[in-house]
Write a structure and sequence with these properties.
271 residues; 39% helix; kinase; Asp/Glu/Uridylate_kinase; carbamate kinase activity
């Protein structure tokens, strides 16, 4: 987990805390792949739980340092989170780093499912079921009301059903949307490695969308304008959040949280 990214996230969170209450979620795509590769005895759901602790503690420490620098109290709490899922609705999600030619040949020989990353290269792919509810939502709500800064739903949360845990990974953006709607949050802010949502991405006609209506987002999603496993779930999460009662949804670059909310950067999806 890059220290620069962790520090940028902590700075964004501290900026946003000046505007209201904040709940922090995060991904784990590269890290969960590393855990599975190095600890072959772990199942996918166990690896997600492992990375929640690993990355959550890194974020908590970065937030402590950022709050200290700003002379603000640190009330960060990290929760290992479970997410109730519908296994009948699942798709393939890329995890881990991009693979070398030798690794592709090795995984192919072992029958491991691989997919092309929209941003280039080949990655391992695993089942990703539809998130329905965050098990710890009430605990998170209570902590937020008491003034705590909660870090949760790391890597989309540990997938579970009424019968028990599931060997899969949950999309972090969709899990964040489910949590945001259950908390009746006003805003959903998705920070990533792109300044904007783009149409015709990677072509000479590529252009940024600074503002996008709910209807336009749904049409562009249906046209396959956004990369599966990258921007598509972010736009889908924004659409679902607004459909579920949210007021504003933003997508933009990590490190620019304040500018994104002010409309100076990033893409806003509006009703």
């Amino acid at each position: 987990m890059e220290q620069e990214a962790v520090a940028a996230a902590a700075s964004d969170v501290a900026d946003l805390l000046e505007l209201g209450r904040v709940v922090v979620t995060h991904g784990n795509g590269p890290q969960v792949g590393e855990v599975i590769s190095s600890a072959k005895f772990m199942t996918l759901d166990q690896a997600v739980g492992c990375t929640q602790g690993w990355m959550g503690s890194a974020l908590a420490e970065a937030l402590r340092l950022e709050m200290s620098r700003r002379k603000l109290p640190d009330r960060t709490v990290v929760i290992v989170t479970r997410v109730l899922v519908d296994t009948s609705k699942a798709w393939l999600k890329p995890i881990g780093p991009r693979l070398s030619k030798e690794e592709v040949e090795e995984f192919t020989a072992k029958g491991v499912t691989l997919v092309r990353d929209p941003r280039g290269g080949v990655r391992r792919a695993v089942p990703s079921p539809e998130p329905l509810a965050v098990v710890e939502a009430e605990a998170i709500r209570s902590l937020v009301k008491e003034g705590f800064l909660v870090v949760c739903c790391g890597g989309g949360g540990v997938p579970t059903t009424e019968e028990g845990s599931v060997e899969a990974v949950v999309d972090k953006d969709l899990a964040s949307q489910v949590l945001a709607n259950s908390l009746q949050a006003d805003n959903l802010i998705i920070l990533t490695d792109a300044d904007y949502v783009y149409v015709d991405f990677g072509t000479p006609n590529q252009r940024p969308l600074r503002r996008m209506s709910l209807q336009e987002a749904e049409v562009l999603l249906s046209q396959g304008q956004f990369g599966e496993g990258s921007m598509a779930p972010k736009v889908e999460a924004a659409v679902r959040f607004l459909r579920g009662g949210g007021k504003r949804a933003f997508i933009g670059r990590l490190g620019k949280g304040r500018e994104i909310v002010k409309g100076e950067s990033g893409t806003e999806v509006v009703k």
